[in-house]
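User: Here's a chain of 366 residues. Predict its fold as tokens.
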Amino acid sequence: MSTYSFDDLQGAGTGSQDLTAGTQYTFNLTNNSGSSYFTMETPRNFDGVTPRNLSGSITSASSGVVFNQSDYIAGFALPTGNNSFVFTPSTNVTGSTLKLRGTGGIYVELSGSGGSVIDADAQAFLTAAAITDPTITSAIDTLVVDLKGYGIWTKMKAIYPFVGGTATTHKYNLKDPRDLDAAFRLTFSGGWTHSANGVLPNGTNAYADTKLIPNTTLSLNSTHISGYLRTTLTVSAPILSAEDAVTYNNGLYIWPKWSGGYSVRINDNTSQANSAGADIRGLHLASRTASNVKKYRFNNTQIFNVTTASTALNTSSIYIAASRNNANYFNNELAFSSIGDGLTDAEAANFYTAVQAFQTSLSRQV
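Assistant: Prediction complete.
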């Protein structure tokens, strides 16, 4: 399956995947912004010729979709909501010679009966991590497609899906899978256990450095961090942490069971603590979406919503599984973590849906 976001489709558009003559390709189009338009077109005199890329047939258009077609261009007027059509090319189409363009908030999923095509960003991660397992491949592809479909992908700076079962595969950032500090790939230190279920720090000297410094990468009033826990914490330590080593000023952390409660800072100097239940397995998400809006969610339930003011972005890189002063070490198994821009309530709910579906597809959900 290939996917194209509104960022891909706007302006000059983007190239298509290659299409095979006689194969049926289904275009599923989500239109979130009223009446919008989608076109498939061959640029005039591409490399001295103009291929008849659209000479095939368009069928099974959903109700309300209006289209016009020639051998070189097909244009579609789309009503709000979910739309679809089937295109069967009569000749092989080289994707670089076929531009896909759209107005408004269109999101497109393209699949063909000749076989699914992996999302390009998902494939880049799988290639970097040398992962070929079909279950993991499908799970990563679906996760990326879901995050793009919800409009969340562009808000991510780092996504650690912890798949493949080794320290090597677990280090890669799904959003930028280069093996570089600048790509925020993890550097593991201390004692870790790596398995198909994720990463397990030993609680005494283990931590992972993301190399991501809030002051240079994140936004003061738009930041989120998250972690998916598979076991119940037995010590007080943060899931992720960046803070002053002495005072925790301008802190950025999620700290379950701080004196028995959840403690959270998002670019501020005030810790909000609420009583934590005995079972804290699942997705923890802390998000700031304004200078005076800080929220914390556990799974799909909001724990608190406070008006604590932001102060500054921390200048130390974010650690996973330890406080930055290395005085507190985590001993809970993680199956996912992310860092990025702040998520609205709707985005947070969709984020949970996507992450929980990802974990379920790998049979490690809680």
